[in-house]
Each structure stands twice: as C-alpha cells, then as structure tokens.
Amino acid sequence: MKAHDGMYIGGAWRPAAGRDTIEVVNPVDEQVMGHVPAGTAEDVDAAVRAARAAFPGWAATAPAERAARLAALRDVLAARKDEIAETVTAELGAPLAFSQAVHAGVPVLVAGSYAELAAAYAFEEKVGNSTVYQEPVGVVGAITPWNYPLHQIVAKVAPALAAGCTVVLKPAEDTPLTAQLFAEAVAEAGVPAGVFNLVTGLGPVAGQALAEHPDVDLVSFTGSTAVGRRIGATAGAAVKRVALELGGKSANVILPSADLAKAVNVGVANVMSNSGQTCSAWTRMLVPADRYDEAVELAAAAAAKYGDRIGPVVNAKQRDRVRGYIEKGVAEGARLVAGGPESPREQGYFVSPTVFADVTEEMTIAQEEIFGPVLSILRYEDEEDALRIANGTVYGLAGAVWAGEESEAVAFARRLDTGQVDINGGRFNPLAPFGGYKQSGVGRELGTHGLSEYLQTKSLQF
Q1: Do residues 117 and 448 touch, judged by C-beta distance below 8 A?
Q2: Longest Cα pair distance anywhere in the chain, in angstroms?
Q3: Is 245 noted as a catalytic residue in this protein?
Q4: Edge-to-edge, what's the strand order for the sheet holding 374-380?
Q5: Beta-sheet strands, E only, within 255-384
Q6: Between 3.40.50.1000, 3.30.230.70, 3.40.605.10, 1.10.390.10, what CATH number should domain 6-246+440-461 receive?
C-alpha cells in the first residue's frame, strides 16, 4: 500500500503538525519502501481532543450498534486479508504464508469475537437492591509493538470500541503502514468520526505525549518491561488506568512421561515462529537430566530445518541485539548445537535459528528476553527442580507443560507463576485471557477479560 502522509484524526486524513518523517524499511532487502509522518505532541493533542469530543456519543451508542460496527470491521479486514498480509510481510519480513495465516487471519477472529461480545455482554445487572453498570473508561491511548502489528492493534482497539471507549493509536514506528491500513478499514466499516484516531511517530515523542496527556483515561501498552515501567510510573502519578503487556521468558517444561520427540519439535517450532519475535515464545526448554542428550539432538535437528523458512528480524538494531545475546551465551559457557552469531545472508536482517545446550539458570540467555530465534535447553533433576527453574525469572507471561497424562500436566501448570500455559500443545484460543504475572505486565487481553480492562463499575442503590 502507499503510505499516507498525514494522521487519521476525527475521521479524516490531516496534515501532520511537523515536517519530520520516519523511513519504513523492508527488513529483507534493507530498502526504504516509504515514509510516514513523525508525530509531535501537537498531533497527539489534536487526536486526543477528537477522541474526547466523540466519546459521549459513542459511549451512549447501543451495544448492538457498536457490535454492528465491529462486525463490519471484521468483514473489511477479512476482505482485505491479502493486502494486509502483503503489507506485514513488506514491513516485518515475515514469510507471506505466515502473514496470511497469522498476521492477517488472527485479527479477523479477534475482531469477530468482540462483535459477538459487544452484543451479548451484560453491561447492567441487578445485585440485591442495587443496579450495577459497566461503563466505558473514556479515552484510551493505545501504544502497540511491531512484532504482531495488526493483531496487537485489534486486541486493544476492538475491546475498547466494544466497551464504548474512543481510541488514539500510536503504532510502532517500524510497522506504521499496517496501522494506516487499519485506519482505512475503520473508516470503511462506518465507525463514527473521532472514535478511532491514528498518530504515527516515535515512542519517546508521540508515545510519551500520549501516555502523559491529561485527557487520556487509560493507557494500553504492549512492549518492553523497561518502557512499561516508565508508562506505569507516569500513569500512577496521574492516578490513570494502565494495561501493560510486557516481556516474557517462558518455560517449556517436558515432564518425564511426555512424548519427548513431539514436545521438542513443537517447542522448537514455537521459538522459531515469527523469527522468535514473540513475547510468549517458549525460549527455555526444561528437560529431565536422563533424557537431556536425546532432547538436544532432536532440537538441533529440528532447528536446522528452519534455516530458509523464517524471515529476518525487524531491523538492524534488533539483529545486532540478538547476535549480541548469542555471543554472550557462548562467552558464558553455553554450547552451540545449531546456528550462531554469524549472519546466514549477506543482505537483510537475518539471524540463524540458534539452539544452546548446557545452559544453566543463572546465564544471561536463560534470564533475559532475547526476542529472536534463540532457544536455551536446561536440564532438571526432578519436578521440584523443574518448577524452581521455570519460576526463576522476573517474567511470568506464558509457558507449556508436556506429560503423558493431561492431569499430570495440569497439576504442574497450576504451580507455574505465569498467566497462560499450553497443555500438551494446546491450540490458540482468541477468547482466553492473555497477560502475565510478575514483570510481564498488568491486566489481560482477549475475551471478556480483555473487554473488562476498558470498563469501570458504577452501582445505584434503591
């Protein structure tokens, strides 16, 4: 798609306040494919004022009508699925088949789920002699990442609109074209002017202005824990609501009774998906000591199949960051069994699918989020040891448990300090709450739990 040279504010594309622009670079060939405006605090203020003006009317709109607009949005996204996939592939570098199935396909499911929830949700209930109302929080500032550019937008905007909130979106600067395409879809779906607004720009400028704006009632942010802390501190000073989906270092726990080959192969696929740029990726594989060598051999063989099947990481900075972690893993004594820091191609921001063995829990690669196609395999002695290792990071976003009997896996998963766990390769559920424990964030996305983040409660006594 051709980049817009303005901001989508108040239902129309408007010129940006400043003249600075952001280059959009294709990570496969490193070529500039377009420019978007670098938004300023003035642009953010205009967008927030438009959202504030639109809020009373949208909040008063019947849930059935809000549901109808979301259903229309779902249909537009479905009709433009090929264009969305091609845009994400160009901006992010994801293989086209993956973009079609995941980057374009999942947002259609999520938008549809909120169309249904908006129509069916109990925004009013009787509790004894009280009537309890669920009302929209107000104006939402949504700040989204580049790794799943459309999914993260829909996971914030759809529940906010279902709740009756209005939104100002500041997307990641690496993937702004996908956000502009979404703004076009919102307009095509008939969402009233000002209900959704888009400001492209840099995080320290436009993102910070949005988080600090006094007329923003809730900030929903997905990104690094470091930035999440700053947004949380800013919001706390203003007693402002936040929803923070932050980092992860998820454990894939393979219990002794599990089908080892299946667990290892699915685990490697999980880490390599989206070139490792997934906050919930199972980047620590925990294996019984007596089957460790077998697991390492299986993982190395599985990783070798992904050499030409994954795309690049998003930009040069991210490529160098991931390579730096690989080099640190080697320096701290981990053993490379697949991949390494050398680039597999002369052009593009590619990183080799990498697997480390002999990783110990105190190593940097076992504690910090790498956000690339890098797997660490750790051994454990018994289940208590596995539990201690699995829970031994500051994160608690996701994870997996494998066992011969589902009940055994569930019993172990209930003891994990993490927000979401897949049992024996459980499938993605767009209605299941997603979010973390500890420093992985505050709040939940998806389903009714995601909708509740954008509601506040009022009770009337009779």
Answers
A1: yes
A2: 73
A3: yes
A4: 335-338, 354-357, 374-380, 284-288, 251-254, 399-402, 422-423
A5: 284-288, 335-338, 354-357, 374-380
A6: 3.40.605.10
pLDDT in tens, the chain (462 residues): 789 999 999 999 999 999 999 999 999 999 999 999 999 999 999 999 999 999 999 999 999 999 999 999 999 999 999 999 999 999 999 999 999 999 999 999 999 999 999 999 999 999 999 999 999 999 999 999 999 999 999 999 999 999 999 999 999 999 999 999 999 999 999 999 999 999 999 999 999 999 999 999 999 999 999 999 999 999 999 999 999 999 999 999 999 999 999 999 999 999 999 999 999 999 999 999 999 999 999 999 999 999 889 999 999 999 999 999 999 999 999 999 999 999 899 999 999 999 999 999 999 999 999 999 999 999 999 999 999 999 999 999 999 999 999 999 999 999 999 999 999 999 999 999 999 999 999 999 999 999 999 999 999 999
Side-chain-side CA neighbours of residue 349 (13 Å): 25
- What is the distance between the alpha carbons of residues 257 and 405, in angstroms, rounded to a whole number? 8
Across 116-152, b (16+ Cβ under 10 Å) vs e yields ebbbebeeeeeeeeeeeebbbbbbbbbbbbbbbbbbb
Looking at the chain, the domain(s) classified CATH 3.40.605.10 span 6-246+440-461
SS3 409: helix
Whether 91 and 313 have beta carbons less than 8 Å apart is answered as no
Of 40, 56, 43, 42, the residue nearest 8 (C-alpha):
43
- CATH 3.40.309.10 residue ranges in the chain? 251-423
Q: Which two tokens stand for residue 33?
A: 């494919």
Any idea which residue has 């997905």 for tokens? 222
* 91, 245, 369, 408: the active-site residue: 245
Residue with tokens 């009940």: 407
Q: What percent helix, strand, coil does the chain show, rounded to 5?
A: 45, 20, 35
**What is the distance between the alpha carbons of residues 262 and 9, in angstroms, rounded to a whole number?**
49
d(CA 186, CA 78): 13
Does domain 251-423 bear CATH number 3.40.309.10? yes
